[in-house]
Design brief:
This protein has about 260 residues and is mainly β. The protein has no helices and 37 strands.
């Protein structure tokens, strides 16, 4: 037999041309959500079991969060709170937590124990899973895949088919696009640009206004900074440091403790 988790209240709000109803729990849902708890806002439906918030599990929408479509899927033990806004066909599941002023659109999927907060904007077919943390005002779109224990922050932009894996850290005004792949414990900050099929992996660090693109590979403990440009099939490895206005391209391989600043 179907036992609903919540009911619609008479409190409504209109946003983006859609009227939403605040909900109230009909039973204890999870810790801090006893019976009678006032929750966030959902689109009204006479078929309450078809609403965006699953009646199974301990999932919940709290505070002033707003769900704009019953095609949204919130299930398992997922939690949406703050002033988060969820649209379209977004799926939030497992132990994922969405909070503060996050906006999620499109067919995005947030899974695992991922946490999305701040003013993060996520859209397209983005997949965020694992224990990744995304802090706004980061913008993530298209077919981006984020997995592991990644930390994404600042005003960074991640788009295209980029993959952010492992314990990678992306921050500042960095932009990751194309088919770029960031993995290991790599760090990308500043106004760095990573695009094409570039790979930043292991403990590599890209800072300042450096660009890494085409098929370039930065790995191990190498670092690239300043206005350096690394492209072609170039590889920077070991503890090499490339900075200044350096241009490294073609088939060049630079490793060891080499330092290049011009």
């Amino acid at each position: 037999m179907f036992y609903p988790k919540f009911e619609f209240t008479n409190e409504t709000i209109e946003s983006h041309g859609i009227i939403l109803h605040r909900i109230k729990s009909l039973k204890e849902v999870r810790d801090n959500v006893p019976k009678g708890t006032i929750g966030g806002f959902l689109p009204f439906t006479d078929e309450i079991k078809l609403s965006a918030l699953s009646h199974e599990g301990t999932c919940w929408i709290a505070e002033n969060s707003m769900i704009f479509s019953n095609s949204v899927e919130i299930k398992d033990s997922a939690l949406v709170g703050g002033k988060a806004q969820i649209f379209d066909n977004v799926s939030i599941s497992d132990l994922a937590i969405i909070s503060e002023n996050t906006i999620i659109r499109g067919n995005s999927k947030i899974r695992g124990s991922a946490k999305i907060k701040g003013k993060a904007k996520i859209s397209g077919n983005t997949l965020i899973t694992g224990s990744s943390i995304v802090l706004g005002p980061t913008t993530i779109s298209d077919n981006v895949h984020i997995e592991g224990t990644c930390n994404i922050s600042g005003k960074s932009i991640i788009e295209g088919n980029a993959q952010i894996l492992g314990a990678s850290q992306i921050g500042g005004h960095a932009k990751i696009s194309g088919n770029a792949r960031i993995s290991g414990s790599a760090l990308v900050r500043g106004t760095a640009r990573i695009f094409g099929r570039a790979k930043i992996r292991d403990a590599a660090k890209i800072r300042d206004a450096a660009w890494v693109f085409e098929n370039a590979d930065i790995c191990e403990a190498a670092s690239v900074s300043g206005n350096a440009r690394i492209f072609g099939n170039a590889r920077i490895l070991g503890a090499a440091k490339i900075g200044g206005n350096s241009i490294i391209s073609g088939e060049r391989i630079i490793g060891g403790a080499t330092e290049i600043k011009d």
